């Protein structure tokens, strides 16, 4: 029972961290501050986590794309090649939508 409580607590802490990262990204609609590409790449690593974490990640990326797609040709220059690859793979991945 103690192991289950520890696991639940760890999951809550992890989800809290993901919610915080998602809030940082959401705080800058239509812009990509210098620190944001690394945050997005880090956030992308949680898309394979169990619910509710993966839903939080999907929602954050959906909102990011909605608010940034119109100016993406300009903003994508703020990402390095590896960061762009990670984001492209995430947004094109079948697991992102499942």
Shape designation: elongated
What sequence of helices (H) and strands (E) makes up the elements? HHHHHH
The overall pLDDT, averaged over residues, is 90
How much helicity do the residues have? Answer: over 70%
**Span of the ends, CA to CA:** 31 Å
Q: Using only CA atoms, what is the Rg?
A: 14 Å
**Structural class designation:** mainly alpha
Question: In percent, how much strand structure appears in the residues?
Answer: under 5%
Main β sheet profile:
none
Extract low-pLDDT stretches: none
Please provide the count of β strands.
Answer: 0
Number of helices: 6
Please explain how this structure is put together:
The chain is mainly α. α1 (2-26) runs parallel beside α3 and α2 (36-44) packs across α5. 71% of the residues lie in helices and 0% in strands. The chain is elongated and about 50 Å long. The model has no long low-confidence stretch (mean pLDDT 90). The protein starts with a helix and ends with a helix.
Short description:
This protein has about 100 residues and is mainly alpha-helical. It contains six helices and no strands.
């Amino acid at each position: 029972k103690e192991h289950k409580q520890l696991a639940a607590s760890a999951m809550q802490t992890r989800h809290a961290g993901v919610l915080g990262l998602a809030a940082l990204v959401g705080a800058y609609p239509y812009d990509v501050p210098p620190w944001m590409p690394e945050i997005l790449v880090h956030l992308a690593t949680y898309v394979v986590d169990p619910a509710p974490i993966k839903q939080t990640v999907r929602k954050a990326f959906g909102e990011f794309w909605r608010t940034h797609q119109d100016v993406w040709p300009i903003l994508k220059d703020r990402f390095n090649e590896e960061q762009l690859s990670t984001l492209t793979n995430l947004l094109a991945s079948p697991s992102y939508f499942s």
